[in-house]
Specification:
Structural class: alpha+beta
Strand order of the largest sheet: 1-4-5
Oligomer: single chain
Mean pLDDT: 89
Largest sheet: 3 strands, antiparallel
Number of strands: 5
Shape: globular
Radius of gyration: 16 Å
Helix content: 40-55%
């Protein structure tokens, strides 16, 4: 993954969300991956997404670390099926909906940014 795309994702989250803030630390994060029967150290950049509306709470989660490799894996899966999505990612111009889908799937459905108002959201607000 290009680091420019990761920074673009963080910038778009910061510009369009009042509830979440995204930061990319300069240092790469180390973690262990399994290759065959052994564990190997790996490093990659991390997208830290934090809740800004409440203080840290040990019961409810307020910080998510989304690894660059997980984002890459999700992008390749979506790109196989959606050529327009692949073109937008190659150009470095993802839409807000693209970012929302990538973050949701990379966080294993735990983080729902709601950057784009869907028809259901508009209906729920009006009723």
């Amino acid at each position: 993954m290009r680091t420019e795309l990761l920074y673009k994702i963080a910038d778009m989250i910061n510009a369009n969300s009042t509830k979440y803030r995204a930061v990319i630390p300069r240092a790469k994060r180390q973690y262990m991956t399994q290759q065959g029967k052994i564990l190997v150290k790996s490093t990659c950049l991390v997208l830290n997404v934090m809740v800004t509306t409440r203080p840290k709470n040990h019961v409810n989660r307020s910080i998510w670390n989304i690894y660059e490799n997980d984002i890459d894996r999700i992008i390749t899966k979506i790109s196989r099926r959606d050529k327009a999505f692949a073109q937008r990612i190659d150009n470095g111009e993802p839409t807000l909906f693209d970012i929302e889908v990538i973050v949701r799937r990379a966080s294993f459905q735990a983080l729902k940014l709601k950057l784009v108002s869907t028809a259901y959201d508009i209906y729920a607000e009006n009723s």
